[in-house]
Amino acid sequence: MTPAHDLAARLGRALDTRPETLRACAQDFGHIVRGAPLGVLRPRSAAEIKDLLECAGPQGIPVSVRGGGHSLYGQGQADGGIVLDLRAMNRVGPVTDDQVSVQAGALWRELLAVTLPHRRTPAVLTDYLGAGIGGVLSAGGLGGATHRHGLVADQVLELEVVTGAGEHRICSPDRDPELFHAVLAGLGQCAVIVSATLRLVPAAARVRRYCLYYADLGGCLADQRRLAEEQRFPYLEGQARPADGPGWQYMIEAVAPYDGPYPLDDRTLLAGLSYDPAAVETEDLGYGEFAHRVDTDEEALRATGEWLHPHPWLNLLLPHDSAESVVRAVLADPAFRDLRDTGLVLLYPVLSSRLRAPFFSRPSGEVLYLFALLRTAPPGSPETVAAMLAANRAAYELARSRGGVAYPVNALPLSDADWQDHHGVRWPAFAEAKRRHDPHLVLARGHGMRF
């Protein structure tokens, strides 16, 4: 009897071991590493998850969680283990004026489809809404409102989880807070998120979106810092874009919500900034249209096939004092030249004091910048992928040498020493939480952490 059959017999239900299922769960959005599981379980209740972990843990069988399937480097895979496919656990609701309950297998776009008719939205959303609820909460979640409200994970009021030890628990800041804080931005190491209760805020009917362009990186970063500290806009992001010639131009994306006629004056909102006044772009959108703005990009990439190509993405958090030097060096590196043709570079401010999840690593200082290098490799070219991974490593080492850290959702293999350095003084507490709640060390091995 195979381990999968033995486990299925113990659970009293069949695991999906069809070859096509195992192939599908042996890959992710990164399309770089592949780890085939023994089987896939599609639970519909916390009790089924509890049964699995009670059986798998003592046998040392790895268990990983899959929601939207958007990991980049095998983080959601379970090589030789069991994948928990949570997509059937996608219930959203009930919705009240200030909160919503949602199961972890739902996608963010499914959550919004339920809350927007009530004119409510989570305070922070990631740009892409096709990711799973549980995956984003496990990573932390950054978005255009993070400078004001913190991480997506910081909007959680209560969690329902099953720990690696198979314990079904409800936790919150006031009820079992140690477990609550170990799970949020905890990279799936301590428990499987079953459902979450999220804080909601009113959703405006419309938004005005400003795109402000800069030839000078220093001026763009200074204005981003000013806008974040002044809280002038509730949504604030930015990009680096190829300029005519060999250089780069920089863009601030600032969004103001409104209901009824636009009540604000553009000149007042943009006063004191050093952008190019001849290149300002503005547009008015419905809130839902703005929230789903990335959907058209996804559709285009699916149509061309690029959605299924390798995605060696890298996300870094940089302190204000070294952000300009790191961004300049990386964008000038020939190893990242392809970003000018097919990639996307995000660059926007985050305020450290707004980040509350204790195990979310961040640089020192109050003003930080997310620097995300999102590029695509051609299919069937492992040499190109290997070169891109090496470039990711070099950029990570440069950022780390200047006080930066990784936002650990990357195509970037990390060693034991890297993980300990990433968590810094929090590593002993993180490792203790892991051993307490997942004593058999079976959860989320795809991150490559060893305890």
UniProtKB/TrEMBL annotation:
Keywords from the named record: FAD, Flavoprotein, Oxidoreductase
Question: Which cofactors, if any, are listed as required?
Answer: FAD
- PROSITE patterns given for it? FAD_PCMH, OX2_COVAL_FAD
Q: Name one Pfam family in it.
A: FAD_binding_4
Annotated GO molecular function terms are: cytokinin dehydrogenase activity; FAD binding
Q: Which residues form the FAD-binding PCMH-type domain?
A: 33-203
Instruction: Name a biological process GO annotation.
Output: cytokinin metabolic process
SUPFAM superfamilies reported in the protein's UniProt record: FAD-binding/transporter-associated domain-like (SSF56176), FAD-linked oxidases, C-terminal domain (SSF55103)
The text of the family note is: Belongs to the oxygen-dependent FAD-linked oxidoreductase family.
User: What's the protein name?
Assistant: FAD-binding PCMH-type domain-containing protein
Q: Which organism is it from?
A: Streptomyces filipinensis
